[in-house]
Amino acid sequence: MTLLVSFLITSNAIAERLVAQLSKEEVAITANFDGSEIFIYGAIKHENSNKTTDPLEVVITVSGPAEKLHVRKKSKHAMIWLNTETIEIDSAPSFYAVASTGALKEVINNTENLKYKISIREVIRSIGNPATIQNPTDFTEGLIRIRSENKLYQDLDNSISLTDETLFATTINLPSNLVEGEYTIRFLLARGGKVIDQLSTTIPVNKVGLERWIFDLSRQQPLIYGLLSLFIAIFAGWLASAVFRNIRI
Amino acid sequence: MQIYLPIAEVSINAFLLLGLGGFVGVLSGMFGVGGGFLMTPLLFFIGIPPAVAVATEANQIVASSFSGFLAHFRRKNVDIKMGFVLLVGGIVGAAIGVQVFALLREIGQVDLLVKLCYVLFLGIIGILMFFESLRAIRRSKNTSLKRPTKKRHNWIHNLPFKAKFRTSGLYISVIPPACIGFIVGILSAIMGVGGGFIMVPAMIYLLGMPTKVVVGTSLFQIIFVTAFATIMHATTNYTVDMALAVLLLIGGVLGAQVGTRIGLKLKAEQLRILLSLIVILVCLKIAGDLVLEPKELFSLDMGIKH
To answer: Do A202 and A218 fall into the same domain?
Structure first.
């Protein structure tokens, strides 16, 4: 199935347009889920020949559901390292990958990056930090560092292949520690550092089967869930004891 | 074999979880401790979110302590009456502990509190128990020296509400065991442990209970306090991961059975010296984490209500 995608016409004299498709319609988190990959591909439609010499570039971003969080910093007090400073991040995606045909800094200029919120730093939103925090950007950097180590934030320069300025393809690896929700995939077409076309689509990431059942029960019937957990524990404890009584070691 | 944990939302090797459960289960059966003081830090270490680790660990301790309890119960090594007195204090303590936990979580210091509690309690108990056991071993080797048979008479014996605890061979006030249960209840809610490592020495050294009975009685109390904690966590924080608990408890219940048998073959003094060494080791590790500069100064806290 071709994903129908919305076209955002940036100017009426548009020369190139994007068409894109994903290798799967959803990401299913099963009991043995160990990460997943999405193959993303598409084409650029050339509608009238353009004389500019700058090459075409493609940027693809994949972002998971945004969440509010606290970033805490430790410092040493009386021999002990403890959390002393905290800032609130109003919105940070639980997953974010930026892939591009070249180095992102060269593909998209700074103004466009700010306008379209493309790089990870632009996506993280944090406003109104307490005045006592001297370097709020350190906290954002800390957040990016921790999430990058867990493969939740990925800077994927030079990872999109572009053939004849027409066909493009890339693979995004989703780690195993994914959060459920709608993941947004944005495609941006750029020339000379400027975005000339963009479109976006979503892909749902959902728990299925037993994972789904356990998760739903824990949220909808927490007391029954808790009692069931206890029942399993007591039963397992009794079973092991009963079995071992007959097997003398 | 990787398995995705539905509540923790991470993917972990199933055999690693089974192995951890088994290892901690053996200790649980041997010493009458729930094993939480080892398992909770181990779960943090393999990447389980702390809130899920603490809650799920409570659920797992129910299984391993129930399994161990049954083994001791059959050998009549459980003082049910004493267990109930400890339990009453324990439930009250756990309810208060959960509130303290929630308050500190809000201001971001729960991590520090948990670690300080570990260092303080593990340190004191480990060292006390280690030297006491050494003395006991030296005493039993030196046969010419008479064992002190005189029963200790201290302030504990002058308190009111005395009751007869036949299995333990004690006639003491119910206030000290209820207080021990209460303190253990608070700590178990804060530290994500059953509290056996505090209760066992307290029962031996403060109440003067025979070591043989202490382990089963401690397990008896732990079953109920951790069951209470499991329900509290499941209904308020939604942090009990059933899949994680099942994997841990399969290893745990089997390990507890093996551990109980090993425990019966060892002498009480040897058992105590082993436990004290494990306690001191865990204490040093956690103290090191607090004092040494961490690799990552920043940490994330996603537990904000929207």
So the answer is: no
Residue A3 in domain:
no
Q: Nearest CA of chain B to the CA of A242: how many Å? A: 9
User: Pick from B11, B59, B66: which is nearest to A176 by CB?
Assistant: B11
- Same structural domain for residues A62 and A168? yes
**pTM of the full structure:** 0.76
**Same domain membership, residue A126 and residue A90:** yes
Q: Which two tokens stand for residue B163?
A: 């009751």
Residues A42, A126 share a domain: yes
Q: Look up residue A144 and give its two tokens.
A: 């990016």
Q: Are A63 and A184 in contact (CB under 8 A)?
A: yes
> A153 in a domain, yes or no?
yes
Question: Do A94 and A24 reside in the same domain of the chain?
Answer: yes
Interface test with B, best of A149, A219, A244 (most B CBs within 10 A): A244
Domain count, chain A: 2
Q: What is the pLDDT along chain B (306 residues), one digit of tens a residue?
A: 888 888 888 888 999 999 998 888 888 778 766 678 778 878 877 888 877 888 898 888 888 788 778 878 888 888 888 899 999 999 999 888 877 877 777 777 777 887 888 788 888 878 888 888 888 888 777 654 444 444 555 666 677 778 788 777 778 888 888 999 998 888 877 777 788 878 888 888 888 888 888 888 988 998 898 898 888 888 877 889 999 999 998 888 788 778 878 888 877 777 778 888 888 888 898 888 888 888 888 888 776 543
Question: Rounded to whole angstroms, how far apart are CA atoms B199 and B196?
Answer: 5
Q: What is the ipTM of this complex?
A: 0.79
Nearest C-alpha in A relative to B116: A80
Contact B238, B7 (CB under 8 A): yes
Contact flag B296-A142 (C-beta cutoff 8 Å)? yes
Which residues of chain A lie closer than 8 angstroms to B297, CB-CB?
Answer: 73-75, 142
Domain spans of chain B, in order of start: 2-142+154-291
Same domain membership, residue A160 and residue A235: no
CA-CA distance, B184 to B85, in Å (whole number)?
13
Cβ neighbours for A123, distance < 8 A, ≥ 6 positions apart: A63, A92, A93, A96, A117
Q: How many CB atoms lie within 10 A of CB A39?
A: 12
Q: Under DSSP, is residue A145 helix (H, G, I), strand (E, B) or coil?
A: helix
How many CB pairs (< 8 A) connect A and B? 193
Does residue A166 share a domain with residue A241?
no
Question: How far apart are the CA of B233 and the nearest CA of chain A, in angstroms?
Answer: 8
Please tell me the distance in Å from A5's CA to the nearest CA on chain B: 30
Is residue A227 a part of any domain in this protein?
A: yes
A68 domain residue, yes or no: yes
Beta-bridged to residue A36, according to DSSP, are A174
Examine the domain organization and report whether A189 and A216 are in the same domain: no
User: What residues make up the domain containing A243?
Assistant: 208-249
Q: Tell me, what DSSP letter sits at residue A125?
A: B
| Contact flag A69-B300 (C-beta cutoff 8 Å) | yes
Identify which of A70, A83, A234 has the shortest CB distance to residue B109.
A83
Determine whether the interchain pair B301/A71 forms a contact, defined as Cβ–Cβ distance below 8 Å.
yes
